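Hi D.,

Good news: the full-assembly prediction came through. Inputs first.
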Amino acid sequence: MDFSILHYGFMQKAFLAGLLGGVSCAVAGVLVVTLRITAIGTCMAHAALAGALLGMLLGTDGLAMAFVFSLGVAGLIGPLSDRADFAPETVVGIVFSAMLGLAFLFIGLMPGPKSQAMNLFWGSILTVRALDLWVMGVVTIALLAGLGLFFKEVRAVLCHRSVALATGVPATAIYYAMLFATGATVTAALRSIGGLLIFSLIINPAAAAYQLSYDLKRIFILAGVFGVFSCWGGLLASYYFDIPSGAVIVILSTALFVVCTLFSPKKKGLTRRQKFSLSFSQGAQMVAPITPEKPHVR
Amino acid sequence: MTTDPLGKETMAESGIQLEGEVIRLDNVSAAYGRHVAMRGINLSLNFGDFLGVIGPNGAGKTTMLTVLNGLGRVVGGTVTALGQRVDARSAGQLRKSIGYVAQQQDIDPLLPISVRESILSGCYGIVGLVRKVPQSFRDRAEELMGLVGLEPLADRPLGHLSGGERQRVAIARALLQQPRILLLDEPTASLDWQAQREILGLVQELHLRFSLTSLIVTHDLNTLPEVCNRIACMKNGQLLWEGPSEQAVDEARLSGLYGTDIHIAEINGRRHICY
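Then the structure:
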């Protein structure tokens, strides 16, 4: 096998970014997919994008401001969506549109060429910096450590939050921590994966893994593997066929979801043999229809 | 009311108080936003009491249960459970001693949690953050699954169960907490007649066996007097009547409560409510 691709420093960094981004986005994805709050992932991606653009407008790196925006949105959405007088999807919709509006406003206010700003939309995994890798590494390790330490509470909140709360688990704190973790993951991977493409890397590997198992631990592992496979596949395709890596990452993760759904054991019905044995088994009995004792009077 | 002597003996040996007031509501009102769900409720329950709460929809029955475990929003009065005032500070700790079986909700059939895992989550509050679930809780979960008839379904995904089976899971999960108080919110709603009978029989048996103080919200008026020793009638957020269950089965009282003609027929020495 030809490993010459790994001789280039930028490709080594890109593969490392794919590993960290693939794992962290997929793990955060399992949280939002199981909680059925996938729109929150998009919302946070756009918040991080708006923050990064504001940072660039102010002449800074943008990463710090991206964290401020996405974590701020995480802190806003959780309590607001828990209020009885707001529907969660309404809160997410309003925050999402506000962040998109801010992002375009900041682009409009930027003087000169806007290519650097547009890179944040599409991402540039091939030009990832050492600082980005460090941030992604810290966030991924923190995410995995938190998941390992609080796995039983995370499972209880993911599967029945109100029940967890009633049994004395600090369910609200765990839920908000999961939102913050999602916000941090999205922000850390923003520059390499891109504000628009990161959404698919959060949802698709997690949704694909969700089709294959009822075991939450296995779903986390499968989602991580699918996330890394999509990222590395995208990089290889980009290198060998000279096509955009971000687009291939999205297409690969989508294809994985389609394949997993088609072959999902959760969606399988009875086999032909099982149907046949049901029809002709000795246990199968015809139930006599209930007939009225007297004919209907017309 | 009858008590299980074995249960009482076990409780007495463990030093747990077997007499006295366990729950007290003093002029309690609760609201959601501007909607007042419960107003000026006074109630006192002693150890071993089993209170049935009845009333039309929107009467404040569920709210009465949730103010006891701190999930409801109290806007006036004082709630005391197990000798402790229920407020934002104490609620988290108190919930570990109060089992709660909530109303049945739709569950995603793909949800990645098995029956065993769901029941085990009942002890997570007691075990505490970061710590692993001790073997003693795992053993108890297996015992409870046997007790409520879920042993063959232990590894089945929670979303694949029928309504009655899910209620059994909720009851076993609440009991794994080793609660002193058990709150049940319409545990027989949307179940067929046989499942309703089975669940109520199971609840009564467990109430006696584990020497609990229990509250149940239900619309099953015919079975309730057999299961509970006291009944509370609620309407429009107010407690209209509360007393011994044998006195609750009264045509005028029930007709006034539900706003419809209710008749009581006596068949083979047993009173049946017809509506």
